Amino acid sequence: MIQQQRLDRLTDWLKAGEIDAAFVHSSENVYYFTNFMCHPHERLLGLFVFQEAESFLVCPKMEEQAAREAGWTGHVIGYDDAEDPWALIREEWNRRSLKKRLNIAIEEHVVSYARSQKLQTLAEEVRFCSLDETLNQLRLVKDERERQILKEAARLADEAVQAGIEHLKEGCTEMDIVAQIELAMKQKGVAAMSFPTMVLFGEKTALPHGNPGMNRLKKGDLVLFDLGVVWNGYCSDITRTVAFGSAGSKQREIYRLVLEAQQAAIDAARPGVRMGDLDQIARKKISDAGYGAYFTHRLGHGLGISVHEYPSLHGNNDHPLKEGMVFTVEPGVYVPGVGGVRIEDDVYIAKDGAELLTSFPKDLIIV
């Protein structure tokens, strides 16, 4: 079972570091080890993993059946809204006859101060260490099952872009197109988008993370789509920019430049290449053409259970690419008063180079 293999790797890390337990807290990381996705809002969700003792899951009682149906076969502490889950945790903790002085690994960027205080009540002395880098490394390399899920998520993202393009017409609003895209995905069985769908028209495309609104489409506008879907717990993320009616010379110039920069970075991607080199390759193309000041973000980010996960593909990242990694490559140029172009694909690092999971055409489309 994949989840047991992942738990075994975490247990091996605990033993090697002489760490007594790990508290896995974020929904995404709990899912990675249990296949159970839960968004508990303010309620407590967590997985306790030990060197030797049996792991146990803590979740709201109303989610307990879902955890079982997802495939978790270990012990579950389900609690209702009137109960203190930490009292139940302490009871379960004491059954394991753990030491009075403990080292507990936590997700330091996720566990709140209040919950760290609760963890400190589980023994006479509790010392914390970071679990973040270990979880990042475990999730960094995708197995074949994950690759296939991500590939299907990417295919659906391609179809979402097509759905958006098909509904472009003069006078429609950005929110009209967002609604059509998300309806099309719901009709294909997609329960959730990876993030709020972005559709921008005209000068608003110069905002890398602009918010769709009631802006109306007119001829000569660029249209930027940035979207993704969640499929079987994994995310896709694609950006395409098209022109409506016509494209001016400046728009075409920017589009050609961004496409060349993206392709240069993709061509260079293979195991062993420094991650930061990909950013620098794309950035140099754009800077040499005089648009460096208008490329205002990193080249890309890791992709998997989270739409933004480790690693960050910025120019100072010295870590090497590894076979099995999945990340985005998304250079952009954003010129106020003219508009912006971003082209983004989901990339899998195979043994001999980059494999694109997204496949929507990248030649400039005039709708």
UniProtKB/TrEMBL annotation:
<dbReference type="GO" id="GO:0046872">
    <property type="term" value="F:metal ion binding"/>
</dbReference>
<comment type="similarity">
    <text>Belongs to the peptidase M24B family.</text>
</comment>
<feature type="domain" description="Peptidase M24">
    <location>
        <begin position="149"/>
        <end position="350"/>
    </location>
</feature>
<dbReference type="InterPro" id="IPR029149">
    <property type="entry name" value="Creatin/AminoP/Spt16_N"/>
</dbReference>
<keyword id="KW-0378">Hydrolase</keyword>
<dbReference type="InterPro" id="IPR050659">
    <property type="entry name" value="Peptidase_M24B"/>
</dbReference>
<dbReference type="InterPro" id="IPR000994">
    <property type="entry name" value="Pept_M24"/>
</dbReference>
<dbReference type="InterPro" id="IPR001714">
    <property type="entry name" value="Pept_M24_MAP"/>
</dbReference>
<keyword id="KW-0645">Protease</keyword>
<dbReference type="InterPro" id="IPR001131">
    <property type="entry name" value="Peptidase_M24B_aminopep-P_CS"/>
</dbReference>
<dbReference type="Pfam" id="PF01321">
    <property type="entry name" value="Creatinase_N"/>
</dbReference>
<dbReference type="GO" id="GO:0004177">
    <property type="term" value="F:aminopeptidase activity"/>
</dbReference>
<dbReference type="InterPro" id="IPR036005">
    <property type="entry name" value="Creatinase/aminopeptidase-like"/>
</dbReference>
<dbReference type="Pfam" id="PF00557">
    <property type="entry name" value="Peptidase_M24"/>
</dbReference>
<keyword id="KW-0031">Aminopeptidase</keyword>
<keyword id="KW-0479">Metal-binding</keyword>
<keyword id="KW-0464">Manganese</keyword>
<dbReference type="GO" id="GO:0008235">
    <property type="term" value="F:metalloexopeptidase activity"/>
</dbReference>
<dbReference type="InterPro" id="IPR000587">
    <property type="entry name" value="Creatinase_N"/>
</dbReference>
<protein>
    <submittedName>
        <fullName>Aminopeptidase P family protein</fullName>
    </submittedName>
</protein>
<feature type="domain" description="Creatinase N-terminal">
    <location>
        <begin position="6"/>
        <end position="141"/>
    </location>
</feature>
